[in-house]
Design a protein that fits this description.
This protein starts with 5 loop residues before the first helix and ends with a helix. The protein has one domain (about 5-75). With about 80 residues, it is mainly α. About 75% of the residues lie in helices and about 0% in strands.
Length: about 80
């Protein structure tokens, strides 16, 4: 995976300032930060939901104490 160095970051910032202008650049940074925050929040919520679903699935697959079969085997064989 390629790494981004300080020179590349500085180049992008300078180009962004030239394209957007010094007045619009801070506004653009705030918007980008807001979008990144929303994306992280959405990703975190998605991970929580996946974790909850996998916990539920793992609870269903626990070994039955009667005959040491998993719940899947019991459902499959009846």
């Amino acid at each position: 995976m390629p790494q981004i160095g300080w020179l590349e970051i500085l180049s992008v910032v300078i180009i962004a300032i030239l394209v957007l202008g010094p007045k619009e650049f801070p506004i653009a940074l705030k918007k980008i930060g807001s979008y990144i925050g929303k994306f992280k929040n959405t990703l975190s919520n998605f991970q929580k939901e996946v974790s909850e679903v996998t916990k539920d699935v793992n609870l269903e697959e626990k070994i039955s104490p009667k005959n040491n079969k998993t719940q899947k085997e019991i459902d499959k064989n009846g």
